[in-house]
Write a structure and sequence with these properties.
- The structure holds two protein chains of two kinds.
- Chain A is of the alpha+beta class.
- In chain A, about 20% of the residues lie in helices and about 50% in strands.
- In chain A, strands 5, 6, 11, 12 and 13 form a five-stranded antiparallel sheet that branches.
- Chain B has a single domain, classed as tRNA-splicing ligase RtcB (Alpha-Beta Complex), CATH 3.90.1860.10.
- Chain B has 16 helices and 19 strands.
- In chain B, helix 5 packs across helix 11, helix 8 runs antiparallel to helix 10 and helix 10 packs antiparallel against helix 11.
- The two termini of chain B are about 35 Å apart.
- The chains are: A alpha+beta, B alpha+beta.
- At the A-B interface, helix 2 and strand 11 of A face strand 4, helix 8, helix 10 and helix 13 of B.
Amino acid sequence: MFTLTTTYQRNYKGSVTWGVGCDFQLEVLPFFVGIGKIRYTGKTMVTETGYREIEHTADWELEVWAPNLSSLLETAARGMYALAQMQLVDGERESREFEIPFGDRESLLVDFLAELLYLGEGEGLVMDEFSFTFDGNTLKVRAWGAPIKNQSKEIKAVTYHRLQIRETEFGLVVNLVFDV
Amino acid sequence: MVAISDLKKISEYEWEIPQSFRADMRVPVRFFVTRDLLEQALRDASLEQAVNAATLPGLVGHVTVMPDMHQGYGFPIGGVAATRYPQGVISPGAIGYDINCGVRLLGSQIEAEAAKPRLDVLATALNKYCPSGVGQGGALKLTERELDAICVEGAEWAKKRGYASDADLRRTEEGGRLEGADPAKVSPRAKQRGRPQIGTLGAGNHFIEVDVVEEIFDEEAAQVMGLHAGHLALQIHCGSRGFGHQICSDYVRAFQGAVKRYGIQLPDRELVCAPLDSPEGQDYLAAMRCAANYAFANRQLLAHWARQAFEETLAGGVKNWHLHQIYDIAHNMGKVEEHVVDGKKLKVCVHRKGATRAFGPGFPGLPAEYQKIGQPVLVPGSMGTASWVLVGTEGSMQRSFGSTCHGAGRTMSRSQAKKQIWGEDLRKELEGEGIHIRTGSLAGLAEEAPAAYKDVDAVVETVTGAGIARKVARLVPLVVVKG
């Protein structure tokens, strides 16, 4: 179904991006982002990449979509940082390199996000740019970011709950549940 | 999805999902609810997750779910599952990331009326002495050797350093120390996360709360515990922090391969498990016990600093400002215990995730003074509502592997709570009710609003009605400190 509509996304730097138009609409569900005294409500629509929060009684669930695996990793990272309301300081950038053994795609996603959580908690860093190199059975990641300015929420872990990267006609889609 | 037509009613408070509901179930699911709580349970995936849990290899009896159930990730919150030891499996996801998340209750001789003028200062002092919030480090800087000692010794480590008394340890589940912990089975990354976080509360639904004992329901049990109507009590709710989170993450990851090696088919990858007698299962058990001991030490340290806050605020102003330990209990844990199943005594590994151990009178492992009344069970309610002190019963031993509820249980998602409730409004409302709030995050406060939780009184009526716990006292909050 072709739908023309408005879209928005809020990134972990706190800015909100509005857009118009998309090819199709997966579903229309209320999406909510709250920060301080300002609240944005609206509808989330499918752009080429994106994420949205799914209702979950106790924990946090994100639906993430992207045209390919590396884009899915990056978009999931953005979504995770947004959920934790992690913001980075302006100023000197830092980079980190790490490797992830490539077993299956779901484990790769969990390991990648777990590594970012660790960098957040252990080194106080938020990463917002990535380069990925698939080298045999290893994913080599180079990430750039900056120290955390503030963080409102604690994410305990990335879970495997119902984790399955689906290939759809629109690209890759995954639902991620975080323990908070 | 589980529908009401799939259920079999056992009694007013107990229902069953028969094993025939789904072909891969190895045991039935039994759960404790009133009709009203049943309707709430059917609104999310908790019962579906309980059915998934009922597929774990080596299960005995039935998977049990408490009335404060809500959907989690893989295993439902409020779930209890016992697997035969050592042939059955152990599943890290069925214990949770916050290993030995639990509650400690301390009682006092302080009359609430006498302390009321000082409660605001007490809230500030508790907030100062007990570090809380996202990424907050503690006052202690541990060496790796000290962390290893905590892994093995738990709350005993705290006693050696002057942070605990003999009575504190005696009135802690397992004496605050689980045997069989091996720090060599814990990753360097977990240790790196654990070292700076000892002695911290964390964020989310963790809290320190000063309560007044509003009503006593069992005079004898309350007397033994040292709980008196009108007196202050203190609750500490927290767990093993990033140390436990990392240990669980490491083993959920490692067990993704283990299930393939052991040919275990599961409906959800978060339920991954390994046989208890396998190298993988033994390694996780040894690492999980390290996190459990870390959490016992963590709550002990927080209790020590809470006592300092009480002394600083109340000494000289009230006759006796001391806080005495009533009990410390885990509600996310895997324990090897003996239970009677189908008339036979069996050694089993009881997975409790959002469920509290509730041993009845006379059971081994309870301190001498609690042998007659049964083990104290601490059930914190949602912020601003009541909390309960219960005791375990013979019924909990017979029907729920010596377990009962652990709290109110969420009924509203965090995002929904934030949509409906402003943190600042909530703080004003609670303060209007005479509750002093200290929080690091107003958004976090909104997520934990009372409206996001079930009615804890209804949960307690269910477990006591079902006979898997008995009421001792009801507490109401005066001070809440949250990360």
